[in-house]
Structure formats: C-alpha cells, structure tokens
C-alpha cells in the first residue's frame, strides 16, 4: 500500500477554540480562524474519500503542535496509519535560523535537511540505514536546543510527534557509511511494505481446524519488486518467504541473524520473520518461540501486530495466553479509534473466535454481536462486511446446534450479498454453501440439495469449471450424497474435484492429497478397501514430500489410513500408524494441544476395540485432562471424552466409576449446546443404556430423575458451571 508524505512550511495561527491550527495557503495575505486550512483539514484532504495507506504530515508553522499538547488532535478519527510531526508546541513560534545566512529557512526545516543530508549518520541512531520518525524527532529536538543555547533562535522550540505507526521506516537511501542494508529509498520502502504485508491471518470455521494461513497476494506482488543486494540476507529471506520458498527463507534469516550481531530492532524483525515462516507451513508449535522472542526483545503497542501474536498463541493451543494479548489489541484500538471503526469489529471477532474455540459460547456471542453492531453503524446495514459479521454469528449458533437462530442470519447474509454484489456473485455461492451445510447437518437433505446445486452453477458460470470454488462446491455436494449413503452419486463428484486440483495445482500438491482422502473415504464406505488404501497411501506420499514427514497434515493422513486398517481388523498396522500420527503432533503442536488429544482418543478407541482396557484407560484420562486444560471444564469436547471413558468403564462392568462420568457429560452438553441438540439426545441414550446394563431402573423418567439428583453434586464441584 502506498505512503503519502505531505510537507507544509508557512504561517500558522491557533484556532480560537484551541482545537486545531489554521495554516496559510498560497495566495492568501493572512490566515485566521476558518481562513486557510486546518491541520485536521489537511489530513482529510490528503486522505481523500478512500485512501487507506500511510499518511505522514510534516508541518513547520507557528503553534503547529497545538493539537498535540491539548489532546484535541488525537488522530483518532484519521485512521491507524497517520503520523503528524510538527515544529513547535502550542505556545511557540517557528523561529528562523540565524547561524547560517545562506539558509533562509526556519530552524525546524533546517534541522530536517541536515538530518536527511550531511548529518544522516548522527540522526540514524541505530545505524540500520533507515531514518525513522522517532530518530528524526530526537535529532531535531537536540539540534534546536543547541541552537537556542547558541542564541541562534529566539526561544527553545519543542517539536511534537503524534501518531501510531511512526516507529517504522520514514526515509532511507544508500550512504557510504551504511554497510549492512544496501537499499535505495524505493527498495527500502518496498521492503517495508513487503514486511508488513506478510502478517499472518487465520480463518477459523466452526467444527473445522484452522486453515493454514496463505501468503497474502499483496506480498507475492511486492516480492517481484524487491531486488535485494547479495549480502542483504534479511531482505533475501523476506523475498523467498513471500514467494513460498520457506526453507531458503529460513536459511537467509539465520544468516541475517549471524550477520554482525544486528541491532535489537533488526533482530526482532528477524525473529518475527522466522516465526511467520513456521506459521505459513502450519508448524505452529515451532513458530511460537520465535514470536515469544520477538515480544521479549521488542514489546509492541501495535494492535495489528498484537493480533498476530495472539493468533500465534491461539494456533499453538495456548488459549489462556492468547486471550490477554488479543484483549490488549482491542483495548488499544478502543483508545485510538472511533467507537464504530471496522478495525474494532475485527478485534471483537478475533476474541469471539477464541472464546468459541474454548466453548465459551456466551462470551463469543456477545463479542460477535458487538462486531456486528459496529459494522452496521460504520458501514450501514446492507454492507457486505455486515454480511460477513452475520455469517460469523450464524456459524456460532450452528456450532451450538441453535439452528433456528442461525437460519435467519444466513438468509439475511445471502440477501445482503445478492443486493450488494448481484445474485450470481461468488460470495453469494459461498453463503449458499453455508446455509446448505446447516440443512445437511439437520438431515434436511431436500432443502440442502438445491442450495448446493445453485452455488455450483454460480461458480461454474462466473469463475469457470476448474476454479477452486467449483472444487469446493463439488466436494460439498458429494458430502451431501455421502451423508445419504448415495455413494454412486458422490463418487463422480469427488473424482471431478480431484481432477480439477490435479490440473490446476499439479498432481503432487497438498490439496490433491485432501481430494484423495475424500475419494478414499467413499471407496471405504462402499467396501472398496483396496482402492481406498491405494488412495490413502498416495495422499500420504504427497503430503510427506510437500510438507515434510513431521507435519500435522501428515498426521491426519496417517490417521485416515489407520482408520481403514482398524475397520479391516488389521490392528497392528492401525496401532503403528496411530502412534506415528500421535508422535508427529506431540512434536509439532506440543503434548498438551487439543489436536494431540484427538490422536490419543483414536489410539484409545483402538485399544478398547481390542479389549486392551488397561492401555486404553490412561489415554482416555489424558484426553480429558488436555481438553479441560486447553478448552475449559465445560467444553463439549470434554463431555465427549468423559462419555468415551464412561463407555470403557461400562464395558468392564465398572459401573460406579462410569455413572458420574455419564452424568457430568450429559450436563456439559445441555449447558453448552442446549437441550435439543443431537449430542444431548445421544448422551441421554447412552445413559439409558448404562442404567439398563447396570441393572438399575432405566425408563426415561428414571434417567431424568437420577441426572437431576446428580446435578447438585456437579455444581458443587464446579460452581461456575451452574446452568
């Protein structure tokens, strides 16, 4: 995104209300209140109606720091990327320099020219070849103080610096004494833009894993414009990262780190880049230490950067540590932005997503609703961004099984997008898919089918028959048929989706591995086990080659193959694969990550199937412990894992151990998902079966009575969990 620098030198007077400064324009003989242009007006003019890039305004005029000292010019309304650097405070004139008669300039402008020219080396305090606003401000203040002591100006001047992004690059170019970063001004600015564009963002969908962040298109474009010097290892690393050459990028970053013990600011950037390198590969546990080192070396108050750090902890499964970071980002945005700024909505959405992941649905709902209100106020009720907020809230209700609440939100989302973008826009197709999935989950297959069909028709017509969205639509429609056990209809759809990705992405792309897994699943469901195993094996080979043998996606492929062997009764082969998947995720994600709990659960279920109860029990117990720690005591995943352990005890006849687990599981589901959710009904059915197996009265009335009696004990153990 472009950077605009506006420099003003001239006469200024205070606004009578003390809220701003009025600047004289060319052709005017005088300046006064509302005669000329205010600094606020100058910013508005420079920004125009839609400019969202960086804006730096340098004002050399009497009283130009008025707004800074009174707090009236907070830049709050001008956006997060605005910087104002002024020559004086609210009680000062901007004095002419008297020591050098050849420069008929004010002292402030004189010092800036010296900083940009012959005294660059002094002004560039950290010696990185890039002059930043704080460095420029420090140099100017010291130089003006020196002029005052020399009686070269009539009074001491106190320049003011306002803004939120002024600690970044301002001006940089090649100088003889700069040996580390051989960059022209254009190169330096392009490099900074590339640096910022590489910030990692994550999309989280209810019931699904986080999607590994894609390298932003902006970064890929900027990488083509950057031509680093052969020994500028940091810049070479950024370019390689943006182009997807991750191993090369990390090598360059290691070389940059070892290069002449770089200044801590540059070292912090290297650490951040290395963390991003792992994140872009889905290596969240390996990424986290680099983000932590970045924060320790250079704490930040940049909300966007804090959101990235919070996301890093989130992806590593460290939810309790992610929460305060994301809250700090929100607090900072609330202080610097208007109450209806869309960036505030982004922060509320981030926190809502975290709460949703933790099963804290009430908090998630509150934050999603606040984000929705902000976007409605800021953008109007029919803006596409409002549609996105509606979608987030609908997905939350979908997760909770509140289907009646989700449906009108999805429908309003579709109406907004159809009106704003047209009935055949690809975004409409995406929303149709979401509503169709809601119907599919409820078994309303007749309602889901035309929505999936319409989405597919839109994307084929607008995007072409081989677009990635068409591939998605085909998979969704295939899933609908698979849910109805219509395998003959599902199979050709999966096959076509596979062909699209093989053609567009290449036969060895990781996305192709996902298609192979889907097709293998439908083969397995039809009893075509040899065909299924062949596809699972090919998917595994692709993923290992593309992502390395220790990537979580490899673990997922191993798990699918293990499931097939378990179905065939090939328990030794299944155990080996489950254990390898577990080892990969323990290393990649950490031993206490929820993803590891899923691997443990699969292995425990295998042992239970084999009658190896003593081996299954500690695994089920560890699953519960991980989920309780990572997600909270009342998360639905905890309820599921409690039920699994209870089922193990029931199988062994350990009824006293099993019953409280069934009871606690049931009430967690009720509290979190509501009494009508299918999981609640399933949990109740399991408890009825337990009562019958244990020789107890087992009517529905008997079961409800016992569950109600148990509730008091459960609430005593966990007071915060009272329904």
Question: How would you explain this protein's 3D organization?
Answer:
The chain has helices spanning 39-47, 66-70, 107-116, 120-123, 133-149, 185-197, 217-223, 233-242, 246-258, 264-279, 284-297, 303-315, 319-336, 342-357, 361-379, 384-400, 403-421, 426-441, 445-463, 468-483, 487-505, 510-525, 529-547, 552-567, 571-589, 594-610, 613-631, 636-652, 655-673, 678-693, 700-717; strands at residues 3-9, 12-14, 21-23, 37-38, 54-60, 82-86, 130-132, 160-163, 169-172. Among the domains are: 3-178, Rossmann fold, CATH 3.40.50; 633-723, Serine Threonine Protein Phosphatase 5, Tetratricopeptide repeat. It has 723 residues and is mainly alpha-helical. A four-stranded mixed sheet has the order 1-5-6-8, sandwiched between helices.
Topology, element by element:
Elements: E1 3-9, E2 12-14, E3 21-23, E4 37-38, H1 39-47, E5 54-60, H2 66-70, E6 82-86, H3 107-116, H4 120-123, E7 130-132, H5 133-149, E8 160-163, E9 169-172, H6 185-197, H7 217-223, H8 233-242, H9 246-258, H10 264-279, H11 284-297, H12 303-315, H13 319-336, H14 342-357, H15 361-379, H16 384-400, H17 403-421, H18 426-441, H19 445-463, H20 468-483, H21 487-505, H22 510-525, H23 529-547, H24 552-567, H25 571-589, H26 594-610, H27 613-631, H28 636-652, H29 655-673, H30 678-693, H31 700-717
Parallel strand pairs: 1-5, 5-6
Antiparallel strand pairs: 2-3, 3-4, 6-8, 7-9
Q: What Rg is obtained from the alpha carbons, in whole angstroms?
A: 31 Å
Backbone shape: elongated
Q: Identify the strand order in the major beta sheet.
A: 1-5-6-8
Q: Could you describe the largest sheet, including whether it forms a barrel?
A: 4 strands, mixed
Low-pLDDT segments: 173-185, 203-209, 719-723
> Which fold does the CATH topology of the domain at 3-178 refer to?
Rossmann fold
Average of pLDDT: 83
What distance lies between the first and last C-alpha atoms, to the nearest angstrom? 50 Å
